[in-house]
From TrEMBL:
Organism, scientific name: Stephania yunnanensis
Top-level taxon: Eukaryota
Protein name according to UniProt: Uncharacterized protein
Lineage start: Eukaryota, Viridiplantae, Streptophyta, Embryophyta, Tracheophyta
Record keywords: Coiled coil, Membrane, Transmembrane, Transmembrane helix
Coiled-coil ranges from the UniProt annotation: 30-92
Residues spanning the membrane: 6-24
Length: 111
């Protein structure tokens, strides 16, 4: 019979699976990094839009301040709050960019 051929074929097939497993793990890590990067990219786009919105709001408030020559205390408080919100949105966008860079670095290290 052809038992030796069948046994060698089974051994060869199982050995090829063991040799292919590291490639599967790399592919899975790359896929995970890609998914993380897509999520961070979406969050970064939203954060950048938020920064732009706050900057526009801040500019409008500055225009109002220049029109009223800082005579209104509420306007001054609104300006300070707008600046704080804009800074927070900017810090959020920067942290997302750093997260994006970390993901990209981990992706490059895997190659």
């Amino acid at each position: 019979m052809d038992f030796p051929r069948i046994i060698f074929a089974a051994l060869g097939f199982s050995a090829s699976i063991f040799l292919y497993l590291p490639n599967l793990k790399k592919r899975k890590r790359r896929q995970t990094a890609k998914e993380k990067l897509e999520l961070v990219n979406e969050a970064l786009e939203l954060a950048e839009q938020r920064v732009i919105k706050f900057q526009e709001r801040h500019d409008r408030l500055l225009d109002q301040v220049s029109m009223h020559y800082l005579c209104n205390q509420r306007l001054d408080e609104a300006l300070l709050d707008a600046r704080a919100a804009m800074n927070e949105a900017h810090e959020n966008a920067v942290s997302l960019q750093q997260m994006q860079m970390n993901i990209l670095r981990s992706y490059v290290d895997e190659k």
